[in-house]
Amino acid sequence: MEVAQTPLLDVTALEKQFPGVRALHNVDLTLNRGEVLAVVGENGAGKSTLMKILAGVHTPNAGTIRIEGREVRIQSVRDAQAHGIALIHQELNLAGNLDIAANIFLGIEPHTAGFIDSGQIHAKAAGHLKRVGLDFPTDTLVADLTIGHQQLVEIAKALSVDARIIIMDEPTSSLSQTESETLFKVVHDLRSQGISIIYISHRLGEVMVLADRVVVLRDGENAGELAREQISHNAMVKLMVGRDLSQFYQRNTTEPGSVVIEAENLRTPAHPRIGLSFSVREGEIVGIAGLVGAGRTELLETLFGVTPAVGGTLKIAGKVVHPKTPLEAIQFGIVLAPEDRKQHGLILEMSVRENASLPRLRMDQKAGAIDFGAEIEVATEMVKKMDIKTPGLEQVVQYLSGGNQQKVVLGKWLAMKPRLLLLDEPTRGIDVGSKQEIYRLMEELAAGGVAILFVSSEMEEVLGMADRALVMHEGVITGELARDQLSEEAVMQLATGNKAAA
Ligand SMILES: Nc1ncnc2c1ncn2[C@@H]1O[C@H](COP(=O)(O)OP(=O)(O)OP(=O)(O)O)[C@@H](O)[C@H]1O
Ligand SMILES: [Mg+2]
Fold this sequence. Notes:
CATH superfamily of the largest domain: P-loop containing nucleotide triphosphate hydrolases
Shape: globular
Bound molecules: adenosine-5'-triphosphate, magnesium ion
Strand content: 15-25%
Largest sheet: 6 strands, mixed
């Protein structure tokens, strides 16, 4: 074979077995120089596992990995680094209490006569930052950067060790629109410098924009591949789920009932001078749209008693209530499935069964002993309804794939049948097929009289699911759009603070 035609990376017949789970079976993957290769697949398809093997986090049970035609063994993160492979994890790995330069050179500090050469560190770091388009002083603390900028620092760190293959696992899932666009530009720049990128995302729209080629995994196996000119939303979905899916969910609206929750000039600690007024009725699904930082999460947290209101009134079913803690909120029938589920939604060391029944047990304070039978029943139903991929109810949640962990969090709240369900970015990290399942469950709850208030940064989700949308901008509700007024244009106008145009 000609050297020029040898792929940069060539993986063949890869196998990975976890206790009770075959995560990868007979998987092949090639990557060329200067190529952006997208890897897509449903939750639990094996994407992160494959990438962790390439990055030396996991070792495979069988299969070969070749770099420039030569077989290599990657048994540690250091091995991967030596071969020029860097993985940008979804949960970023930076030390917040150190500055940018220290993070870039963490563990590989250049020394002069035995001492860490700080001048050299800052000069070199500045060079790497430039390549990712960041012009912050290199002594800025990482904790003071936005998530998007932290991600760029991670990429700069990869460049500092001469990575030729940069793997990004769901890089945009917590980025704002602008931050995502900056990242796309950096991906393009890296590609033109000959660096190869493996890009994992559930956002098929961005895959269409970025990818030179798409590899699809299904149930741990290769499901197909699409060349640039074959890439389309439908083609990807078809390979991912093995069937056609209608692109957007369309809600069947029902007549709303009486008012469940009513806020009047409610003031949150995040924006104490701004009063928020709105209501949600039984059976209604109300969306809260807006850009990242508009105060949407803060509003949900106030309703749930995480950060109690500092003024105004809140009525539940006509009665004035002011939850001071989440426990109080739960007693009023309010529950919140938070945005940051890893930190606030799950106990990672506990099993699927235990996580599923947590809120119930907390609510029923009188329960002295745990009813295992009931617990198993609740968990079994949740796994079935949410189509959670797990070898069993006793699996520790930490070992589920990212999307399946999220389904556990969501599932346990959906199973509670609250009065008011607050959802923050309910489908973040969730694959296309399961998204529709979650929408169906939301609709089912609404039909049963639950009031739902959900925050979403995905326009399609707001347009498809909301009976009505509140749009926020810098802490203010800039407008309210009824279903027949909902359009991308109207939402964006209000989200950017342009009241008059909408
Ligand atoms: N450390 C582990 N121990 C046991 N099972 C694991 C472990 N890591 C992953 N798995 C299992 O391997 C399978 C593939 O998981 P993986 O995280 O690779 O999926 P994914 O495609 O990245 O999904 P998602 O889109 O939800 O992130 C899943 O069934 C998961 O539960
Ligand atoms: Mg994953």
